[in-house]
Amino acid sequence: MRDASSMDALKAAGASDQATELADFASESIIGFDLSGRIKYWNTASEKLYGWPSEAMIGLGGERIAVDPAIHNDQWPVILQEGRWEGRVSRHTMSGGRVTTYARRVVRCDTMGAPVDVVEYGQNLKVNPEVWSSGSDSLHLTAAFWELDVSDARDYLAKDAASRVSELKGECVLTSAQADAILSRIRVLKVNERTAYVFGAYADQSRMIGENLGAFCPPRSRMELADLMLTALRSPLGAKPVSKALASDGILRDPILTAWRSDDRAIPDRAFLVVNGAADDDRSFWYLRASEERYRKLLHFLPTALILVDASHMAAVFHRLRDAGVRDLNAYLEQNPQIVELAKSTVRVTEANRQAVALLGGATPADLIGPIDFLYAASPETAVRVMNARFSGERSFSEIIPIYTLDGSVKEVQYSVAFTAPLEPFEHDLVSMEDVTDRLKAERQLRKIEADFSHAARISTLGEMATSIAHEVNQPLSAIVTSGETTLHLLKSAQPNLEKVNQLTGRIVSSARHASEIVQRIREMALKRAPEHVSLHINEIVDEALLFVRGDVEARSIQLIKNLEEGLPCVVGDRIQLQQVIVNLLMNSIQAIAHSGTEQRKIRLGTGLSAGGRVIVSLHDSGPGISPKDIERIFDSFYTTKETGLGIGLGICQSIVTAHGGEIVALNHQEGGAHFSVSLPVAARDSDTGPY
Amino acid sequence: MFDRPVIAIIDDDEAVREAFFDLLQVNGHACRTFDGAESFLACYGPGEFGCVITDMRMPGISGLELLEHIKAIDTSLPVIVVTSHGDPSVRLRALKCGAQAFLTKPVGQHALLGELKAALRGSGNPES
């Protein structure tokens, strides 16, 4: 009964002989079309249904037997774009009558994903009227189908009737909380592929089952959907479906929502929801599906923790605030802190990749899906800053914040948000999270080691400078002893010169103060404490540093030529550490000169401002200079050309200067000798709170 | 000539300088203070000073260099060296160069006045 041409046609379309035979025995009408809409296969059931024999139909365009060829021709591109179509089809029968079937059309693809043909499965609506009980012609478009368990929602509406029903009376009086309550109590039992594709936020069908309907509803459609479901739930069994047209939401073009309760008395808590609408996108379904599949894989397997966040509700709120004339969101939020809370509960995580689940201590992505507030629990101010960044139109936001993970620990996370631009169709923000807990810990440890190291170096340097320091302390002590003895001598006379005694005692006091200050400076240098960041005048630092080495300079008959520029801007840093840098550089020069035994014994020490606006300390000595083989390694720790000494002095200088955002350079001066130059960034104007 | 000999006090530290000045003055000596070897040498003339008390460590010309210089131009002018650290090698070098005395700070008044007395007595009778 099968002719060769129809078999060939199906074979050409990729079907096996066996499959063709199976289709022949099917009770459903099965029709194969090529992509242009020509009939290539017509099974036995089709012959029975329409009366037309297979031989008459092969090669004909599908519109030839359509009651309204225009509808057929309009539908065809939609089928090719969407990949799937379901709806009613009316065709002429051979006997001159009409048959209306409920038809499902599927585009079949080859292994490469390219469309090959279209297969239609049709059932006579007269025989199976329950297949599609809705009379709406709008349902011709591909529909996203939901089967829902509404028992909890019905309980919710039935209980607390006194308060709730009165509130819900009339039209559109649902509060946002009630809408959420209803939607969250409706459980998904079954969805079709279309539903998963449109609403699943990259979840597949099975992942949607058991979730509540509210989890998949875009915030802007929430109230409408809740209202529709409420109407359907309160309608009697067997009532007509209720429909509602919504505005395009960026996912579907002019979607129509239809809901009805099952009319089967055995399952009164069953409801159905159908969402019709073509994808609001110019790309074809196939392209879209492939690109989303790629995107999904990319998202899931990227080694960075990523979450997708639906902030469309807040985008709408911000839009209204802007329209209402709010310009300074920060000030507005201070007066209306409930907006921050609203954002934390309405902005939702809709998808999370594997790394994000791992970072946040969850077991599955579902653990993270929901309101975003848990991410801001340890750093509530961050939510406000994110909102401000979004409101002011920035495209991204990033800072390091602590996050409480689901397994109860705290992690330091580099938290970055990429905002969707206003009016972009896909209003999901992408949040990336990088666990920097260990990095910050290592950095803190490194800073501590550096501080310990520079302290150890200071102690070592103080030892080297003991003679010089002794000289500094001895000078005022010497003056005190001599003046004291003179005073005693005066007091022994019969008529003491009290005026002179007074003057000498004054000198004793001032010298003692001076000695005490010197001891204090040495103590600071020897003390171990965390580095500070304060505004400092570099010339003061230089003068204080000289205190430690002046004795050495003089003992070695070195001429120190100071040239400190007045009125330099402040630098920010630690007083003692910067002193240490200058002391170390001076000690280095003093030792270089002492070892060389040169005639010229000079150190030129100057401060100034570089062309780039940095504060410069420069030191040029008359020593032998730096040999070419040393110049590369001169700042390496433990590198020394001296017989004594640890070789940490210049290394410490470099690490301190670098930590201050500066730079240290060693050169040989053109007039001979080594030339060290330290450049430091100047303090920002508002932190310019130096002692002057 | 019955003028009291003038004592030159050289130290870069003002407090020390003034303390020595007061000590010598209340003990009946005539003194002049200098903040360094350079300013002293600018005022120096033969017979101008009876004794020099100088610090060792000073910027520019050090105490030791000044001592050598004085001994080269005026062997009869006694020099007392005062220093804040009594490094034996420096002490030896100073004494070899002809220093009258080598005192370590803080200097006791008896030591300083005693050495000064000896120096002035000696300088009054050169080559005796």
Spatially, the strands of the biggest sheet of chain A line up as 13-12-11-16-15-14
Which percent bin holds the helix content of chain B?
A: 40-55%
Helical element count of chain A? Answer: 24
CATH topology of chain B: Rossmann fold
Helix content of chain A: 40-55%
Structural class of chain B: alpha/beta
Q: Would you tell me the overall average pLDDT of chain A?
A: 80
For the biggest sheet of chain A, the summary is:
6 strands, antiparallel
Number of strands of chain A: 23
Strand composition percent of chain B: 15-25%
Low-confidence stretches of chain B: 124-128
The level 1 CATH classification of chain B is Alpha Beta
CATH architecture of chain B: 3-Layer(aba) Sandwich
Characterize the structure shown.
- The complex is a heterodimer of chains A (692) and B (128).
- With 692 residues, chain A is an alpha+beta fold.
- Chain A has 24 helices and 23 strands.
- In chain A, strands 13-12-11-16-15-14 form a six-stranded antiparallel beta sheet.
- In chain A, a hairpin with a 6-residue loop joins strand 8 (242-245) and strand 9 (252-261).
- Chain A is elongated and about 150 Å long.
- Chain A starts with a helix and ends in a 12-residue tail after the last strand.
- Chain B is an alpha/beta fold.
- Chain B has one domain (6-121): Response regulator (Rossmann fold), CATH 3.40.50.
- Chain B has helices at 14-26, 37-43, 63-73, 88-96, 109-124, and strands at 6-10, 30-34, 51-55, 79-83, 101-104.
- The longest helix of chain B has 16 residues, at 109-124.
- The chains are: A alpha+beta (692), B alpha/beta (128).
- The interface between A and B is medium-sized, with 32 and 24 residues.
